[in-house]
Every structure is written in structure tokens, then in C-alpha cells.
Write a structure and sequence with these properties.
The protein is of the alpha/beta class and 576 residues long. The chain is 36% helix and 16% strand. It has 17 helices and 18 strands. Helix 3 links the parallel strand 5 and strand 6. Helix 1 crosses helix 2 and helix 1 runs parallel beside helix 13.
């Protein structure tokens, strides 16, 4: 199940999986298969990314190149121009940002702009991408993209002939065939190999062999042009924009792009499928050869990264639904989620709106497949998936919160800061405490004393009464925050635009910290970004835990020395 002991280290963040994590899809492209063009404008993309965070997404996956069937490859400079302003803005708001790219130059620039995860659809088969991630601390998503059906082999009819002449003729044919194979070897090395065939000779430092791309044999074409690292894309981390690439450099021709060729073949297979009257013994193909290819590639690539110097706890795996796979094959893979989870890495379920989801639900339009997507994701979560990548983050967060509340008893520790400087301050704080205890799936486990503090930020106002309440809750952080805002409103807190943000108030409730939760966005930041500078929070916390400054520093929060803090405590006002 998702509430296991795996953790995923992504730069300065560490994700635990006591509950499934939601990755929201943000396509900054004009041609993505279900939402192309909706968020192509950077400002629209940033706004939508923040909205997904405020609706419950834990991670935002930003992509600038569509990899749908029949896609047109995008030049790395153009891809960087699309995604970097979005990555920079979301990271600034505390979001965990994933960059969905297969180009090392774009990955480098995005990580410098604040991305914490590199999501490579080619599974880190490019040695240059491996060289980059081993020198960074970002999280890594290894995805399988490629055909999983066994190659078709034709067998000629054999007729036995025991004559000496036939024997001599057969030996001559074998000799000629062997000579022809020897002559073909150089050409064969230049072509992509099927997953499971001998690996290419590309090596990383330390003698680690780097496997070839798992895309199967490309269509007959000239030798693929290698994707060179583009300095222009690297320079974009320091500049706000990237100059558009000339038309002549519009990615290597689609026919020379192995991922594009594989997706093109996949689309043609779907279009060419014609039901026949031939009876089949089973509804689905045998899972063993399919899973050998998928799990073999994922585990091989994970080991390759580890041997290259990447820490194991940075690696997440994704079987790549829809990438070169038929609907039947995708269903087989999803049913084997528990086997993939047993590899020990965080496991992603990225089925959102895919063709096979439409096939099993009967929904033709991709944008209308969200309900079916949620059903497939729930099955994956029950089998051990840790992260779900979805287009409708708000809808899935609501779906998951409802399911998790009933199916998974899971009280977690949290701290809520309470303050008041209007009316009967201590009575307001005690009333808030009683109302917090009435929140569904929540109880108050402890409370600090009530302290008097100097006003912070807006100093020309009366002194505050402050306390911290320790609770246990089974609610999701954003749901809990909504309940706290309702209490504020009921006790007379004015949050209208005319009220000063840090001015006088009857009650103020801040969610400071929650066990296992890291969150960014406009609505909620966890841990609270100002907790380390507020004396009126850190001193009451000393009643509830030993050395809160050390505790929060360990959780990645910068905590200032007492003399450098704001809102200093000046006295005690009594017990709660």
C-alpha cells in the first residue's frame, strides 16, 4: 500500500508516502493530446500551476514538448523558452516542481531555476543525462518507453534431405550467411535495439554499461542525428527568456527521432487494428514476457544510475503507460503494479486520460476520461503505487481525500498557532481551541500556555495574546486549513481586502507544521515559511516539544536566533 516506509529525496525536499502524492500535469505546449494550448501562455501556465497546488497537488510536472502519438519533436531552445519562466515562478512559491524533458540542456537549466525533479521519458538512456543527475541532488523519474511485445519471428519450412550433395550445399549456404552477417555488423550497431537484446557499448565512468533506448527498431531511415547539448538552453537559467531557434534547427527531423518514430508506430497499430473472428484462448496476452521487459528495463536503469553515483532514495520508477504499448499491454502492466512496487522504489501511476483508459471506459474524448482515470489510479494505489500523475488535480484530490478518510485510519500530528489582540484575547484563544476540537477527524492533544507578545510586522497596535495548539488529525492539510478559516470567520476575523494583513484581529489561526507534509502555493505553505523568525510561535512551542528550533532546523526550516526574531514574548497570561 501507499502508506509504506519509502521516501523520495528531491533536492531540498523529502517526500514520505504515508499517503499517495498527487502530481499535477502542466503542459506548456500547443499540441498535447488532451489539453494542448490551454496553458501555452506562461502567465496562464503559472496561474494554473498555483491553482493545482491550492487544490491539493503535491508536485507540478512542467513539460514543454508533447510526446503524444504522432508528436513533432521540439528543439531544446524552444522547449526551454516555454518552461523556464513557469518553473522559476512555481519554485519561488515553494512548489515541488518536476521538469518533464528528455533533453539534458533543458533539465540543467530547469534545475538551476528551481526544479527539484527530472522526469525523463527516455529513462535516462542518454549518458549525458546520467552525468548531469549524478552531480545534482534532484529526484529522478525513470520511465519505460518502448514496445513490449516479443519480436515476431518467421520460420521457414524445413525439408530433410540426407544426400551428400544436399549436405555440401547446406554448408555452403551457412558459410555465405555467416559472411553476410559479419558484413552487416557495423550497420546494425548504428540502429536502436529492442529491449532485452545485447546492450550498446556506451559506457559511463567506472565501466558501467549504458543501455540503448528501449524503443524497438526504428523505421528505415538515415543514421539518427545525435541530440547535442545546446549552450543557448543552458544560458537561459541566468536570463529570463531564450531566443527562438531558427526554423532550420526545428529538432532533428521527426523521421530521425527514435521516440517520435516509436510513438508513430504505436498510433498506426491502434488505427490499423481490425477485430477478427479468430478465437483467442485468453482475454489478455501473457504477462510474463511483458513484465520481463518493463521491469527488466526499470531495474537495469535504476542500477545503472546507482552505479554511476546517484543515491537510491532519489529514484522513482514509471512503467510508461501509452508509450509504445497497446491497450491490452497497458492493462497487463497495471495489474502487475504490486510486482513493480516490490522493486523497492517509489512507483508512479501516470495513466491520466491515456488511450487504454478510454478503451476500458468507452470514453472517446481524452479530456472526458478523468472519472475513469481515478478508478485506474485507485486500483494502482491499492496495489502499491505511491504517486499519481493526473490532469485534474483538484478532482483527484477530492476523490482521494474521500477514499483515504474511510479506508485508511491515519492520525497525524500538527501544530496550530493561535493569536488575538482584539476583545477578550484569552477568551478568544480558548474559544478557538474548543472549536478546533470539534473539527471532524481531529482532536486536541496538548496546548501551550498563553503568552503576551509584542506586535510583529505592524507595530502600531495593541500587544497580542499567543499560544500553540498540538492536534492529531486525519484530514488532508488543505481540508484542515479550510476548517481553520471557518473558525476564524465564526469568531469575527476580518479577511477582506480593506483589512491590514498583519493588523488587529480577534483571532488568527496558522497551520505551522504537519507530520510528513511539504506544500507550496499561495493558499498554504508547509512548513510555515515564517515560523523560524517568530518568537511568539517558537516560545510557546517549547511547552510542547524539546528544543523546537532544533526540530525545525532538522526539517529544513531556517530558525533565527532569539535576538533576531520578531514579536518577542514579554510575559505569561495564564494556562489554556
Amino acid at each position: 500500500m501507499a502508506n509504506d516506509s519509502k521516501t523520495w529525496r528531491c533536492g531540498k525536499y523529502e517526500l514520505s508516502f504515508d499517503r499517495p502524492r498527487i502530481m499535477g500535469v502542466l503542459n506548456v505546449t500547443p499540441d498535447s493530446f488532451s489539453d494542448g494550448g490551454e496553458h501555452f501562455d506562461p502567465d496562464a501556465a503559472i496561474e494554473y500551476g498555483l491553482a493545482m497546488l491550492d487544490a491539493g497537488a503535491d508536485i507540478i510536472d512542467v513539460g514543454g514538448e508533447s510526446t503524444r502519438p504522432g508528436f513533432t519533436p521540439v528543439n531544446p531552445d524552444e522547449e526551454a523558452r516555454r518552461v523556464l519562466p513557469v518553473v522559476r515562478a512555481l519554485a519561488k512559491e515553494g512548489a515541488i516542481v518536476s521538469i518533464d524533458t528528455r533533453h539534458v540542456a533543458v533539465a540543467k537549466a530547469a534545475v538551476r531555476c528551481g526544479a527539484s525533479i527530472v522526469n525523463d521519458v527516455t529513462g535516462f538512456t542518454d549518458p549525458k543525462m546520467v552525468e548531469f543527475v549524478k552531480t545534482s541532488t534532484c529526484g529522478i523519474i525513470v520511465m519505460h518507453a518502448g514496445e513490449v511485445a516479443a519480436p515476431t519471428r518467421t520460420h521457414a519450412t524445413v525439408q530433410l534431405d540426407t544426400s551428400a550433395a544436399a549436405f555440401v550445399a547446406e554448408k555452403a549456404r551457412e558459410t555465405a550467411a555467416e559472411a553476410a552477417r559479419e558484413a552487416e555488423k557495423p550497420a546494425r550497431r548504428r540502429r536502436g535495439k529492442l529491449l532485452g537484446e545485447p546492450k550498446s557499448e556506451a559506457k559511463l565512468p567506472g565501466g558501467v554499461v549504458q543501455p540503448s533506448l528501449p524503443f524497438g527498431e526504428p523505421e528505415p531511415t538515415s543514421e539518427p542525428a545525435s541530440e547535442q547539448e545546446t549552450p543557448a538552453a543552458e544560458q537561459t537559467a541566468a536570463a529570463e527568456t531564450v531566443a527562438p531557434a531558427p526554423a532550420a534547427t526545428e529538432a532533428a527531423s521527426e523521421s530521425n527521432d527514435r521516440l517520435a518514430a516509436m510513438m508513430r508506430r504505436s498510433a498506426r497499430r491502434e488505427e490499423a487494428y481490425v477485430p477478427t473472428s479468430q478465437l483467442r484462448r485468453f482475454t489478455l496476452p501473457d504477462s510474463a514476457p511483458i513484465m520481463r521487459r518493463v521491469m527488466g528495463f526499470l531495474s537495469d536503469q535504476a542500477r545503472t544510475l546507482i552505479h554511476a553515483g546517484v543515491s537510491r532514495d532519489r529514484i522513482c520508477i514509471d512503467p510508461g503507460p501509452g508509450f509504445g504499448k497497446s491497450a491490452n499491454e497497458d492493462i497487463v502492466i497495471q495489474r502487475e503494479t504490486a510486482k513493480m512496487a516490490s522493486l523497492g522504489y517509489p512507483l508512479m501511476c501516470a495513466v491520466s486520460r491515456k488511450r487504454f483508459v478510454g478503451a476500458v471506459s468507452g470514453v472517446t474524448e481524452a479530456a472526458e476520461r478523468d472519472a475513469a482515470t481515478f478508478g485506474v489510479c485507485l486500483g494502482a494505489i491499492q496495489a502499491g503505487a505511491n504517486i499519481v500523475r493526473v490532469h485534474d488535480a483538484a478532482g483527484f484530490a477530492q476523490f482521494l481525500n474521500g477514499y483515504w478518510a474511510v479506508a485508511k485510519p491515519q492520525p497525524r500530528r500538527a501544530f496550530v498557532a493561535v493569536g488575538s489582540n482584539l476583545g477578550h484575547r484569552c477568551d478568544n484563544i480558548r474559544a478557538a481551541r474548543e472549536m478546533i476540537a470539534e473539527i471532524p477527524l481531529t482532536c486536541v492533544s496538548n496546548s501551550s500556555k498563553i503568552y503576551e507578545s509584542e506586535p510583529a510586522y505592524e507595530t502600531r497596535q495593541d500587544a497580542f495574546a499567543n499560544a500553540v495548539i498540538e492536534i492529531k488529525t486525519e484530514l488532508a492539510p488543505l481540508v484542515l486549513l479550510d476548517e481553520l478559516m471557518k473558525i476564524e470567520a465564526e469568531l469575527g476575523r476580518d479577511r477582506s481586502k480593506k483589512a491590514k494583513a498583519n493588523g488587529p484581529r480577534t483571532i488568527d489561526l496558522d497551520l505551522l507544521w504537519m507530520d510528513g507534509e511539504t506544500h507550496g502555493g499561495k493558499k498554504l505553505r508547509l512548513p510555515h515559511p515564517l515560523i523560524g523568525e517568530r518568537d511568539f510561535v517558537l516560545v510557546p512551542l517549547e511547552d510542547l516539544m524539546h528544543d523546537p528550533a532544533r526540530f525545525f532546523r532538522y526539517n529544513g526550516v531556517e530558525v533565527k536566533e532569539p535576538e533576531d526574531r520578531v514579536g518577542h514574548i514579554v510575559g505569561e497570561l495564564g494556562r489554556m
